[in-house]
Amino acid sequence: MNTANFPWLTTIILLPIAASLLIPIIPDKEGKTVRWYSLIVGLIDFALIVYAFYTGYDFSNPDLQLVESYPWVPQLDLNWSVGADGLSMPLIILTGFITTLAILAAWPVTFKPKLFYFLILAMYGGQIAVFAVQDMLLFFLVWELELVPIYFLLSIWGGKRRQYAATKFILYTAGGSLFILLSALTMGFYGDTVTFDMRSLALKDFALNFQLAAYAGFLIAYAVKLPIIPLHTWLPDAHGEATAPVHMLLAGILLKMGGYALIRMNAQMLPDAHAYFAPVLVVLGVVNIIYAALTSFAQRNLKRKIAYSSISHMGFVMIGIASFTDLGLSGAVLQMVSHGLIGASLFFLVGATYDRTHTLMLDEMGGVAKRMPKIFAMFTTCSMASLALPGMSGFVAELMVFVGFATSDAYSSTFKVIMVFLMAVGVILTPIYLLSMLREIFYGEENKELVSHQALIDAEPREVFIIACLLIPIIGIGFYPKLLTQMYDATTVQLTARLRDSVPTLALQKDDALKVSLSAPQIGN
Fold first, then answer.
1. Residue 2 maps to a domain
2. What is the mean pLDDT of residues 1-27?
3. What is the pLDDT averaged over residues 28-45?
4. What is the DSSP-derived secondary structure letter of residue 521?
5. What confidence tens digit (pLDDT) does each residue in 58-85 have?
6. For residue 191, how many C-alpha atoms fall within 13 Å in the half-sphere facing its CB?
7. φ, ψ dihedrals at 280, nearest 5°
8. Cβ-contact 481, 331 below 8 angstroms
9. Angle, nearest 10°, between helix axes 113-132 and 136-145?
10. Residues 6 or more apart from 315 whose CB is under 8 A from it?
11. By the 8 A CB rule, do 505 and 390 touch?
12. Would residue 158 count as lying in a domain?
């Protein structure tokens, strides 16, 4: 087989979707067969992802690779166009890895198992498509398609307030998606040629005012998905009602779609507007870090506490994107992958703890470490990763963003000092609420009012295996970040250079705390 010409990305996207269509005809009422079928499909697709990038991807090439383009609506230059570069490739691998583990995490599901695994596999292909497609209208379609499985996974298998959480999720995300469509259409029809190809759009000479309007539209849509405060309230509700495998998909993949799109559409395609919005992103990122950390500290519901922790960590992604340095942008991509792994592990352990204690309220827990030492050890290790302990991937990612922004020449010293100080406060708050959470769950005396201490059995081999699979890359990247950064550095360096070359000069007061000095000759690493 000629691997160079094989349609790898199309196969990787369509395989789980096509496999999901066969689930209804599988003769299996209890779900035992369909779960093995789904796991095998997930493993095969993940193996194809790894093989495709291992054999056909050049890390030193910053441009799109594994490119495929097939005519769809030639009159609009609308094609099935897919490709991968350093921005999308790590997230495609992350999607395959997390989704396969989520299928294994869904092993106990017995209620409507066929529909459950059908939705998981359909979403598998849809999420990979979001990171791979290179046509704006096609991007909008797969972005919308991915919302449907999450809605049903929440509304059917969620908790007591599942209908409210699912409805809020769909309203927020679908409402935000309208801004993607409007911005995409206006960009596609701008000028003398009509095109929705992302590479062609990036070369169009958009007027500055037009860029600013399109950037604002995209930012609203991606602020919902990232999420950015104040458009974040759907996330704690969704996490509060979701099951463990859906948690893993939400935290591990869904939030990364917003960060990826912010880099791909806003920074890469609208670089002049990015210079004007960059200070806003930095401020919003700091607000995310501080506000979400404080809110997480106040939460008594375990799922909502971790959900706000996720919002806080995504603030570093925004700051890295707005840093105008190679190090900062590289840290933003690393933070997305790192948080995908850490968030998935924490939410899986939250689900495992709930299955045993039958409560999410911290006030009703306590002293369970004696009965569940393995879960205690895994929960502690993953929490250490979340609070950016040295030797874990979160530490490297946050340090890169921190240093990348602090050494940026794009901002005034006053602005950088204020923002760096607030970022440091957020870094300090994180261990406070995570360590207090561990204390309330595992330490102290057992709560005699807990539903049934007889059910507090320790982790089973399947659960240990899932956490081990997540911890290996978390620790591996923590000790040797080049394992991941070498995959995308060529792309991020090229993008940072483009941003610096395209930055206009902003005439603002020198003493203004939010003054930005963005003339291209002054910007450096």
1. no
2. 86
3. 89
4. G
5. 998 998 999 998 888 777 677 899 999 9
6. 15
7. -65, -40
8. no
9. 160
10. 284, 285, 286, 287, 288, 289, 292, 426
11. no
12. yes
Take residue 176 and report the two structure tokens written for it. 């935000």
pLDDT of residue 512: 41
134: phi > 0 → left, psi -120 to 50 → alpha, else beta; which? Answer: alpha
- In degrees rounded to 5, what are phi and psi of residue 78? -100, 115
- Indicate the DSSP class of residue 505: P
Greatest extent of the chain over all pairs of C-alpha atoms, in Å: 73
Of the pLDDT bands very low, low, confident and very high (cuts 50, 70, 90), residue 285 is very high
* Structural contact between residues 251 and 239, judged by C-beta atoms closer than 8 angstroms: yes
* Domain total in the chain: 1
What the block records as the tokens of 57 is 């991807």
> Please, are residues 365 and 305 in contact by the beta-carbon 8 Å criterion?
no
Contact criterion met (CB below 8 Å) for 88 and 131 = yes
Residues 94 and 46: their CA atoms lie apart, in Å, by: 9
Alpha helix stretches (DSSP H) within 57-112: 89-105
Helix (H) or strand (E) holding 142: helix 136-145
Neighbours of 460 (CB within 10 A): 11
At residue 176's C-alpha, the angle toward residues 171 and 180, to 5°, is 140
- In angstroms, the first-to-last Cα distance of the chain is 44
Cis peptide before 230 (omega within 30 of 0): yes
In tens, the pLDDT along 371-417 reads: 889 999 999 999 999 998 999 999 999 999 999 999 988 888 899 99
Q: Which residue has the higher pLDDT, 29 or 180?
A: 180
Per-residue confidence band for 520, with pLDDT thresholds at 50, 70 and 90: very low
Q: Is the dihedral of CA 386, 307, 16, 88 positive or negative?
A: negative
Residue 309 φ then ψ, to 5°: -60, -40
3-state secondary structure of 411: strand
C-alpha–C-alpha distance, residues 84 and 90, integer Å? 9
- Tokens 């922790």 found at: 309
Residue 104: domain span: 8-522
Peptide bond into 473 cis (omega under 30): no
Q: What angle do CA 9, 15, 19 make, to 5 degrees?
A: 170
Residue indicated by tokens 């959470």: 437
Is the Cβ–Cβ distance between 459 and 379 less than 8 Å? no
**Assigned domain for 127 exists:** yes
Q: What are phi and psi of 291, to 5 degrees?
A: -65, -45
Return the exposure string of 267-281: e unless at least 16 CB atoms fall within 10 Å of the residue's CB, then b: bbbbbbbbbbbbbeb
Residue 421, amino acid: F
With left for phi above 0 and alpha for psi between -120 and 50, is residue 324 left, alpha or beta?
left
Q: How many C-beta neighbours within 10 Å does residue 205 have? A: 6
Helices (H) and strands (E) in the chain, counts: 21, 2
Residue 1 lies in a domain: no
